Structure formats: structure tokens, C-alpha cells
Amino acid sequence: MFPSSCLKSHDSHLYVCFACSHFMTPDYVWYVPAQIERRMELVRLVSHNAHKRLVSCLQGQLGTDSEKRHKKLPLTALSQAMQEGGSQLGDDSLIGKMMDVCGEAENRLATELMHHEVQLERDILDPLNQLAEVDIPNILKQRKQLAKLVLDYDSARTRWYQATKSSNQAMAAKTDSLKDEMDEALNKVEICKDQLSADLYNFASKEGEYARYYVTLLETQAEYHRRSLAALEAAIPTIQFQQDSWTEKPAFGTALEEHLKKSNREIALPLEACVMMLLETGMKEEGLFRIAAGASKLKKLKAALDCSTSQLEEFYSDPHAVAGALKSYLRELPEPLMTFGLYDEWIQASNVSDPDKRLQALWVTCDHLPKPHKVNFRYLVKFLAKLAQDSEINKMTPSNIAIVLGPNLLWAKTEGTLAEMAAATSVHVVAIIEPIIQHADWFFPDEVDFNVSGMFSMPTHPATPDPEPSLDRKRPGSLVGQDGDSHTPRKDRYLSRPNLSLSLQESRGPSVSALYVVADESITVTETPTEDLPSPDFKAVP
Amino acid sequence: MPEQSNDYRVVVFGAGGVGKSSLVLRFVKGTFRDTYIPTVEDTYRQVISCDKSVCTLQITDTTGSHQFPAMQRLSISKGHAFILVYSITSKQSLEELKPIYQQVLAIKGNVEAIPIMLVGNKSDETQREVETKDGEAQANQWKCAFMETSAKTNHNVTELFQELLNLDKKRNMSLNIDGKRSGKQSRAERLKGKCSVM
């Protein structure tokens, strides 16, 4: 009986059945299924809520014009603050430049956001509002109207029916007019029903359109994010370029190559600055590089060296702080001056037993250093050799310098995780550095002008000329006698690692006999990883 | 790791050049050398009596010139007792001990049960920068013992080590191997005698 359109689907069925009720008997006309009403109401309610929540997501004021909206955005305020900050600091300051660039980017983001919100309002918020607050209420209102008209028609019909049944003449006379009334009421019902049907058809056919709002919402948001991302990606290379082109990077803790490249230097700034200051005032200082400096002074000097514009004059009077800063610089390098790559080679070279061949091996390894490292290492070694020339006064012989400075020049990559390894390493490093300082002029025959960049004042006594600028790779005979003089008593310290266990055995032998001679006398065992050693010898003590 | 046997480990800390090695060498060898040689790290052993038997007193002489945190932490975690040395001629050297003390505190947690001796060395020097009362005040603050010594004149050196051992309440230790608590002076005499024999 129903038109085929009524059976399309369950949802539309309900509406259409109601809408096409004129095919049914009038008794059914006023029958409005409650679920239709509930459903319409539900759609209205959820649309209303979605609208409300979406509005609260907006940062701009709803309904205002785009310019005003843009001005009110928090991002705009941020952008303005940054650009003002940038202009106050000026272009000399990196922070100022960055704030300017960043402020511009934020402004672009604010514009994107404003466009996005305007679009959201136009394409989603307004239609949703229309649906929830106007369209559906109108339909519901019309339905109420229809119910009222149906009631009117019903009572008119009842009156007409009673009149036809009545035997009363007067009543019968009125039958015609009652019939007219009834017809008119029916007509109104029909009109209202048609209108309502049209609206309901409309609503049903538009469900797809209403649902589309949500697709549009996501599309709009995606587009906004894409545009924002594009704005950010356009800004990032600019700001990164600014950052990278800024030369004043801290030297401490920065890889040597990077620092040299950034600052366009040949010798690391802290190295040259410290050497120049020490040449001036530190060469006669007892225990230079050994005695610790005041922690706060050291911190201040390190910070001053990181910032090339600062004044260094005050530190001339504190050579220990200067030496400490130089040590810190070397220690804080991400890769030691003598490099991780050559670590094994250095150790191997220092293990060569023949002194001449050992020097040759060290020279070869030295020659393998990458150029920036080699140049800076040479500079430092030449300075340390010069310092050792005054060892009568400053007590810093090549051996002593190697002990206090060596561990800052070379370490294994695993240092820190294997502290015991590090302890063994220190011993090796001393054995590597000492001969290099001792024979600095053989390792590096060319004279070094310590005042490379001219940034720091000249020392009062210029570098002494190199007496032996020989390129002969053989160890100079004149130096043989000097070797070992200063550290003979401590020779046992410089045990090479592969011999470690053997040497310990040897050194323990005499200790045991001494123990028997004088039971409570001292026993000296010189070694480093003490924990690993069982001590059966001592259990023999009565 | 092998059994720790019954070693009693003492670690000596302090800034460069305050006389850590001189103190230790004076104690274990009875000698003083007026040379100037920084230390990498040395360990010395001596037999002492502990709870009526013998054990080995192991003294670790650390470096003052380049403190690698990992090595310092290792020494602290291995040590039973600590000697913190400064030079009375350098205020700075006392300052240097503060981070070391903090490190001991951080690793050992409660330091009250751990023998710690603050030592002002070079007491023979006339150019004093740190007064005795300043050292005492620092020791009070750290709740540790305090002593002034001179490795050069052998003042308070043996006493320093004996006092340190006495501070350990968990063990009954004595530098004297036969267990008799002979007078400190006579012990020093005996030491000297033995040295001359050798």
C-alpha cells in the first residue's frame, strides 16, 4: 500500500510514512510516531552540543570581523612581544634576531589561525547552528501545529457527524455549514501536512549534507595544520641559518674542529688565551697545572673565555686559575686532543720497549693526528716544553707535567663506565706524553709563535729559537742522557699494561721477604687495580 | 671479583701539592723526600692487627691534580676510611675538600659510622693561611675528626693513622701487630730502629 519510497530504509520509512499519510485513512493522520520526534530532538541536541564545544575551541571572538579577530589572538600578542623584543635588542644580538624571525613566523601562524576560524564559522558553525536552533525547531513546531489542526478537524467532524445523526431540524439545517467547517479543517490539515511532509522529506534527504559538516570540519582542520606547518617549515631554515652563522659559540665542550671552523681559528681560543697569559705570568709558578685554582675564579675564567668579548686582564695575576681553565678545556673536549681514533696506536707506541723505537712509534702516531688536532697538540706541547725549561723554579719537569696533564689529553672512549680501565690509562698516558714533552723539538722541529691571532698581548720574553731544527727522525743523541733523570725513582709506575701481572708478581716478591724480616714494617706494592689481587702472601704472616 | 679478604682500605684525598704522598710515605716508609712529584695513584699496604688477628691496611694515595669523577667515585665506594688533607698554607686547598666530602657523603650515605679525618698538613710551615681553629670548625661541621700534621717533621703522622683506626667502632684495630698497645712514642722509636737496621 505504501509507495515504494516509503520502504527505502528504516529511517526514511518512519518519516515518509508519516509524510505520506494522506494515503491512509484520516484516523491515522494524527498518529505521529514518538521515536521520530525523539530522534529529531536528539539530532537537535547533539548538534547544539557539538556547536557549543566547537565554539569553545575557537581562540578568536565568534562573529567579529577578521581583522579584529586577528588582533585578539594570543599568538598575535606573542608575535608582537617577540618583534618588539627583537627591535629593542637590535640586530647585533642573536637573541634579538631570533626573536624577530620567530615573531614573524608566529604572526603568520596567527593569520592562518584566523583564516581557519573564519572558515570554521562559515562552513561548520553557522550551518550547525541553523540546523539545531532553526530548522529542526521549525519542523517540530509545525508538527505541533499539525496535531492541533488534526484535533480541530476531529472536533469539526464529530460535530458534523452528530448533526447528521440528529433528528432535530435546526441541527440538520446546520449540517451543511458544519460540513463546510469540517472540509475547511481538513483542508488546513492537508496543507499543513503537505508542508510538514515537504520539510521532513527535505530533512531526510539532507542528512547526508548535515553529516558532511563533520567531514568538512576535519578537512578544514587538516588544511589549517598543513598551512601552519608550511609556514613553520618556511621559517625554520631561516632561523637555523641565523643560529649557525653565529660565531660566538662556547668553546668549552665543543668539538675542536667545530670550534675552529666556527671561530675561523687555527688554535683553539682557550688554548691560545691561556698559553699567552701563562707565558706572561705563569712560567715561574711552582706547581703550575698541579695546584688547584679557586673554584669560583676558575668558573669565572672559563665563562669569560667562552664569551670572546670579555676582559681577561684580571686573570694574569692568577696563573693557577689559567692553568686550571686550560686543563678544563682539554678535559671537556668531546674527543680528547690526541683523539679516540689513535688511542690504541698511542698505547701500542708507548709499549715499545726499545726507547729509540718507542720514540719513532710515537712520532709516527703523532703524524697520524688529524690536522686541527696536530696543530693544537703541537702548540700545546711546545708550550709545555717551554714550561719544563723552567722546572728548576716551577718544579714542573716533563714527567710532572705528563702526570698532571696527560690524563686530560688522551682517554679511552669507555672512560667512566670502566673506571679501573681509566686508572690504568692514566699510567699509559703519562708514558706517552712525557717523552713527547721531553723531546718536543724533535717531534716538532719548527718554531711555534704562540701569539697566533694577536688577540692577546705579547709575552715579555719571546719564544726562544729552536736550537735543533733538524728534520732527522733519529733521536738526537744529546738528549739521551736526560731521559729518565727526573722520574727514575718512580719508574715502576709506568708499567705497560700487558706486563702488568708479571710486574706485580715481581714487585710482590721482595715485599714478602721484607714482611718476614720486620713483621710490622711497611710493604709497598705499587699497582693500580688493587682489588683484583688476592693477597695470599699476607696470610703467611704469623 | 675475588674475596675482599680482610683488607682495611683507607683513601687519602686532597688538592694537588698538599702532601698526601708525603704523609703516606712518611707513615709507611718513615722517610720524607723533598722532591716534587705529583701522584697518579699509588697503593701501599701494611700489616696491622684487627680484632686480635692480622689484616692488611691498604692505603690509596689519590691524585690531587686531575679528578676524574668516575675514578673518585670508585675510590670512595671501595674505601672504609678517609683522610682529607689540606695544607695549612693554602685556604684554597681546604676549599677543594668540600666537593670531595660531599661526594663521600653522597656515596656512603650516612658518614657518622665512617672514619673520616680532616688533616691540616705542613704544620711546620710558618706562612699559615688556615688557622687551627678554622680546621677544627670545619671538622665540627662535618662531624669528623681533625688533626694537624707535618710529614716533614714527622709530627702527628703515626698518630693520624692510629686515630683513624680508633674511629672505626666496628673493628678493634691497632697499628701494633702483636696487639700490645705500646706508647706512640716508643713505637716511633722502634720504627726508626728497624729502618736503620735495614
From TrEMBL, chain A:
The keyword Disulfide bond does not apply. It is a peripheral membrane protein. Residues 168-195 form a coiled coil. GO terms for molecular function: GTPase activator activity; SH3 domain binding. Signal peptide: none annotated. One of its GO terms (cellular component) is cytosol. The lineage of its organism: Eukaryota, Metazoa, Chordata, Craniata, Vertebrata. This is Rho GTPase-activating protein 17. Residues 254-444 form the Rho-GAP domain. Residues 459-510 are annotated as: Disordered. The keyword Ribonucleoprotein does not apply. Pfam families: BAR, RhoGAP. It is found in: Cell junction, Tight junction; Cytoplasm; Membrane. InterPro entries: AH/BAR_dom_sf, BAR_dom, RHG17/44/SH3BP1-like, Rho_GTPase_activation_prot, RhoGAP_dom. One of its GO terms (biological process) is regulation of Rac protein signal transduction. Residues 18-245 form the BAR domain. Keywords: Cell junction, Coiled coil, Cytoplasm, GTPase activation, Membrane, Phosphoprotein, SH3-binding, Tight junction. Residues 498-510 have a biased composition (Polar residues). It comes from the Eukaryota. Component of a complex whose core is composed of ARHGAP17, AMOT, PALS1, PATJ and PARD3/PAR3. Interacts with NHERF1, FNBP1, TRIP10, CAPZA (CAPZA1, CAPZA2 or CAPZA3), CAPZB, CD2AP and SH3KBP1/CIN85. Rho GTPase-activating protein involved in the maintenance of tight junction by regulating the activity of CDC42, thereby playing a central role in apical polarity of epithelial cells. Specifically acts as a GTPase activator for the CDC42 GTPase by converting it to an inactive GDP-bound state. The complex formed with AMOT acts by regulating the uptake of polarity proteins at tight junctions, possibly by deciding whether tight junction transmembrane proteins are recycled back to the plasma membrane or sent elsewhere. Residues 484-495 have a biased composition (Basic and acidic residues).
Automatic annotation (TrEMBL), chain B:
Residues 178-192 have a biased composition (Basic and acidic residues). It is found in: Cell membrane. PROSITE patterns: RAB, RAS, RHO. Keywords: Cell membrane, GTP-binding, Lipoprotein, Membrane, Methylation, Nucleotide-binding, Prenylation. Coiled coil: none annotated. Gene3D superfamilies: P-loop containing nucleotide triphosphate hydrolases (3.40.50.300). It comes from the Eukaryota. The keyword GTP-binding applies. GO terms for molecular function: GTP binding; GTPase activity. GO terms for cellular component: plasma membrane. Residues 176-198 are annotated as: Disordered. GO terms for biological process: signal transduction. It is a lipid-anchor. InterPro entries: P-loop_NTPase, Small_GTP-bd, Small_GTPase, Small_GTPase_Ras-type. Displays low GTPase activity and exists predominantly in the GTP-bound form. Belongs to the small GTPase superfamily. Di-Ras family. PANTHER family: RAS, DI-RAS, AND RHEB FAMILY MEMBERS OF SMALL GTPASE SUPERFAMILY. This is Small monomeric GTPase. The lineage of its organism: Eukaryota, Metazoa, Chordata, Craniata, Vertebrata.
